[in-house]
């Protein structure tokens, strides 16, 4: 992958690993809808010139990219709000890049670190288990519950309906089984337990092949409520 070669060149000897994770590593990747998730681990952080070069490299690359960079110290011993050295993302090929630099507290990074350790694959450098410390499941679940609460007030957001419902399914399954799973796999898992949650079927339809298909706001609320209940009772 050309972008991985560029990351390695820009980071130089400080690079510990570039890890592919998310749907492309764990299954469920959809070329038109899924991001290519990369986590780079570096010793000592990045210079301003290195940050600018990495942003430019992602801008030149093809497809939907989500690159996150963390220091080796953060990766080895995660905290509840780990520091993020750099995030460069393009989630729509026609959109401008999302860029975040030297974020002191990035609690959403917990799920990324957890997924990368569980299912990631090193494309350069050391394997995930050598550079990534274990993230307590309770921390991941707590952050998931935060988002379930946020989304409860956004059930009329049609543009993000499928994302909210399917991610809620992923949070739910992780809380119960401690297992990260792709969106559709998580949706099937939820439907096997709660077939009455019609918004899950609607979200799958919208995500898979009908972008304009509606997802009932009341049904979204039902999914979020059920996921909240399950995560609260999970004990994670």
Quick gist of this model?
The chain has 236 residues and is an alpha+beta fold.
Please provide a written account of the structure.
This protein has 236 residues and is of the alpha+beta class. The chain folds into two domains: 2-131, 2-Layer Sandwich (GMP Synthetase, Chain A, domain 3), CATH 3.30.300; 137-233, no CATH class. The chain has eleven helices and six strands. It has a six-stranded mixed sheet, with helices on both faces. A hairpin with a 7-residue loop joins strand 4 and strand 5. Helix 1 (2-11) runs antiparallel to helix 3 and helix 8 packs parallel to helix 11. Keywords: Transferase. Residues 131-209 form the Adenylyltransferase AadA C-terminal domain. Residues 3-47 form the Polymerase nucleotidyl transferase domain. This is Aminoglycoside nucleotidyltransferase ANT9.
Q: What is the number of beta strands?
A: 6
The stretches of 5 or more residues where confidence is low (pLDDT under 50) are none
Helical content class:
40-55%
Give the strand content.
Answer: 15-25%
Question: In total, how many domains does the architecture comprise?
Answer: 2
Order of helices and strands: HEHEHEHEEHEHHHHHH
Radius of gyration: 18 Å
Domain Adenylyltransferase AadA C-terminal: 131-209
GO molecular function: nucleotidyltransferase activity
Domain Polymerase nucleotidyl transferase: 3-47
Keywords: Transferase
């Amino acid at each position: 992958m050309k972008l991985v070669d560029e990351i390695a060149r820009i980071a130089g000897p400080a690079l510990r690993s570039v890890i592919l994770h998310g749907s492309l590593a764990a299954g469920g990747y959809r070329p038109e809808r899924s991001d290519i998730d990369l986590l780079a681990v570096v010793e000592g952080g990045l210079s301003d010139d290195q940050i600018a070069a990495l942003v430019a490299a992602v801008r030149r690359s093809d497809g939907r990219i989500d690159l996150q960079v963390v220091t080796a110290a953060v990766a080895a011993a995660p905290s509840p709000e780990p520091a993020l050295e750099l995030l460069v993302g393009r989630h729509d090929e026609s959109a401008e890049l999302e860029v975040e630099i030297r974020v002191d507290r990035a609690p959403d990074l917990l799920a990324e670190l957890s997924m990368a350790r569980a299912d990631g694959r090193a494309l350069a450098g050391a394997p995930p288990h050598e550079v990534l410390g274990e993230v307590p499941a309770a921390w991941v679940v707590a952050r998931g519950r935060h988002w379930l609460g946020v989304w409860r007030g956004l059930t009329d957001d049609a543009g993000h309906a499928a994302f909210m419902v399917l991610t809620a399914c992923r949070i739910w399954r992780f809380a119960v089984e401690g297992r990260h799973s792709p969106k559709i796999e998580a949706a099937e898992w939820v439907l096997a337990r709660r077939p009455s949650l019609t918004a899950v079927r609607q979200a799958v339809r919208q995500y898979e092949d009908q972008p304009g298909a509606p997802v009932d706001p009341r049904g979204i609320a039902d999914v979020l409520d059920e996921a909240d209940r399950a995560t609260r009772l999970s004990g994670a």
